[in-house]
Structures are given as structure tokens and as C-alpha cells.
Amino acid sequence: MQQPASRLPAPVQAIVAHxxxxxxxxxxxxxxxxxxxxxxxxxxxxxxxxQMVVVLSAVWAVRRTEVLTWVALLLGTPAVVLAVAExxxxxxxxxxxxxxxxxxxxxxxxxxxxxxxxFHDDKVTRDELFATGAAFTVVAWGFAYxxxxxxxxxxxxxxxxxxxDGSDALPWFELLYLSFTTLTSVGLSDVYPVxxxxxxxxxxxxxxxxxxxALVVARLVGLTARRG
Length: 228
Description:
- By secondary structure, the protein is mainly alpha-helical.
- It has one domain (5-227).
- It is built from eight helices and two strands; from the N terminus they run ααααααβαβα.
- The chain has helices at 10-17, 19-37, 41-62, 66-88, 93-119, 126-153, 172-183, 196-227, and strands at 158-159, 192-193.
- Strands 1-2 form a two-stranded antiparallel ribbon.
- The longest helix is centred in the C-terminal third of the chain and has 32 residues, at 196-227.
């Protein structure tokens, strides 16, 4: 028999009440942990599967809709399998492209679901504040997978510390670094696109970052100020 929420331990109640916070914290923890895991096949597989499981559970808690359930299963389940395959064989091109084919739409759909959650009413809750950050990090993850596929389809798309001349594919974590610096518009990345197709994808992410601040963050600030 399921316990009422009021009878659950306090930490469990906090997790149930703030699933977006769980998602945001998990993504940030993985960012910090990934440098120590990327040299291990087991570590990369654990990081990939853990990320997908956390995203699935958090979004399910935020938006319990039939459509979300079906989309999450159709995209998320193959993505989990391919995340493990990519961790075992990160240099196999078709695995990287197949993984991106499921990860990219999945993460973008997760971001869409979180933004819908933010816009569903005119009240700003604590969990919606966490959802603002969570949706932002999810978009960054989605573009990182998009860049990973781009450098397979168009070799030499990106250059960086691991491949100054673009002769080798950059590790996924460097592409995630590029994605975060592009989305936040800070422009501090030493990883950058050199081919036209790669640059067009980066420009799309730049526009997405600006629109996110202009629409989502500005609306949240406006509602908070109006409530005050």
C-alpha cells in the first residue's frame, strides 16, 4: 500500500515535491563527475544511463500526460540502450549518429514539456524556479548530441584542444562544453565550429539561448515582480 505523501520521510517528500530540482541537480552533478568517468567505459555507460533515467523520472513527475508517456518511451528507451552502446564503442560513427537521432528529439521534447509546465499558470512556485534551470540544461545536452552527430556526418566540423586541426572527432564532453558556452552566449569556449554546417547549428543554439532568456526568464521575473 502506498504511503500518503505526508507520512513519507522529509527527504522523500522534498524529492516528490520538487522533481525539477532533482533533474537540475543531477545534470550539474554529472557535469562535475563526467571528467572522472569519461576514461572508463563503465563510467561513461553509468553516466549516460543515469542521465536518461533521471530525466525520464523527473519529467514524468512534472507532466503526467499520456502523450508525454508515449513519446518518452518511444524516444527514451532506445536512447538508454544507445547511450550504453556509445559508451562501449564511442568511435563507431553509426552508433554516434543513431544515439543522437534519439537523444536530440528526446531532450528537446523534455525541454518543451518543462516549458509548458512553466507556462501552465500565472503562479511561480519553487519547483518552477528549478524547472527554469532544468529546461536550460536539457537544451544544452540536446545540442551536444547534435554536434556529436554533425562531426560524424561532416568530419572536421569542430576543432579544440583534443583536435587542434579537426582531424579527429572531439570527445562528447568538449561538445557539451561548447553547447553550454554557446547557449549562455558567454563566448568563452576554446572549442569552435569551422565548417559551414557546424556553424549553422551553433547559430541556431545561439538564437535558442537568447529566446529562452527573452521569453522564459523574462516572464518568470515579470510574474515574480507582479506578485511582489
